[in-house]
Amino acid sequence: MQSLKRYWKTYILGGALLLVLFIMAETGFQVRAFAQERYADLQNFSKVLNLIQQYYVEEVNTKKLVYGAIKGMLRELDPHTNFMPPEMFKDFETETSGEFGGLGIEISIQNGILTIISPIEDAPAWEAGIKAGDKVVAIDGTTTKGMSLAEASVMMRGKKGSKIVLRVVRDNEDKPRDITVVRGSVKIKSVKYTDLGDGFAYVRITSFIENTSKDLQKVVETHIKNNKNMSGLLIDMRRNPGGLLDQAIKVSDMFLKQGTIVSTIGRNKNEKEVATASKKGQYTNFPIVILVNEYTASASEIVSGALQDNKRALIVGQRTFGKGSVQSVIKLGDGSGLKLTVARYYTPNGVSIQAEGIHPDIEIEDVDPDAFSKAIVKSVTTREGDIAGHLKGDREKAAEKLDVKEGAEEGALAWWKDVGSKKDEKLSPRDKLFKADYQAYQAFSYLKAWDTLKALTR
């Protein structure tokens, strides 16, 4: 009996060993096959490079050829994967510190066309009249067709004080226009604040750079100190092209007690990285409304998604841009750099931001103040109820009993009558903001009505 057990034990162990050896042999074969295939491809590249070096009609710059080959390879991938030669990579590193030279714009490739995602406020491009959504068809007379983001970036950079001409196509315009921009130093102020009165605050976050979370905390602390409390916070992230992921996480963490902020999933679906709230959120007890639009992208979408899914904020405005991919930046040996897409962002509810964006809880269409003002002035007519001392109607009497203003309008008409028709010299900073910005006015009305709207965030 003992010998029989030993026999079966030996048989099982032998079979397991053969299985392991078979798997190792199969895996080894696959690895060798992959290596041989890659070697053959690299051998072809090496042969072509060698032939060019030996027989091309003129002397060639080998490094230039290699850089060109790398750029060509990356064109087969998404537009956010870029190779940056040493000088360009050096410029890239300075951009996230908050001060750099150039035009001050965020660009992307949309449907093969170089497109302005957002001009940075107060930067040269902003001052020259470049707008989000402008399609750049030529730079200094050179067509942008087939141009990569990295190549466009190189052409747009130059000495401070030098000029560049961008030919742009703008929606609802028949002909392209040439806009001259004077290059200059771009110092980003990523957090801008306006006191809205009655304890309410407006904060515009223009981008996420290395000091954004600290600057936002200072603004909130100052407001609470001056007003003794925070009745509500309106965060404006329209035209915010994004920036540093760690800053988006820190900003989200400030307003959350707990929960997931964002998760990233790369090629291996089992390797999931999750950023969660630290449970140290200082500002968790006042209402927040976040205003977004179609040019709200990347890091700003992460903050919007985190606070929306965790039922911490009401998102209003328009569906966001949908830039939900993660790039890693790798510095290479010669000082050049590779910006490589390695993963996708997912909101706490597991929804991919990529190409989908963040859907607002309440949509608010934009209104051109000048166009609306001209249209409303033409349509204004005096009615019986507008005449002083008029005989009151039944509805007007009922409204007085309920302490409701008769004729209280909603939407754009209410905005125009409240602040849109007033003279600038008579306006407070709050009203100056709202006169030029219907969406912000509407977003603030939702913030003030937070208790009524709580159900929308559940």
UniProtKB/TrEMBL annotation:
Keywords: Hydrolase, Protease, Serine protease. Transmembrane segments: none annotated. InterPro entries: ClpP/crotonase-like_dom_sf (IPR029045), CtpA/B_N (IPR055210), PDZ (IPR001478), PDZ_sf (IPR036034), Peptidase_S41A (IPR004447), Tail-specific_protease (IPR005151). Residues 89-157 form the PDZ domain. SUPFAM superfamilies: ClpP/crotonase, PDZ domain-like. GO terms for biological process: proteolysis; signal transduction. CDD domains: cpPDZ_CPP-like, Peptidase_S41_CPP. It comes from the Bacteria. One of its GO terms (molecular function) is serine-type peptidase activity. GO terms for cellular component: outer membrane-bounded periplasmic space. Belongs to the peptidase S41A family. This is Carboxyl-terminal protease. It comes from Bdellovibrio bacteriovorus str. Tiberius.
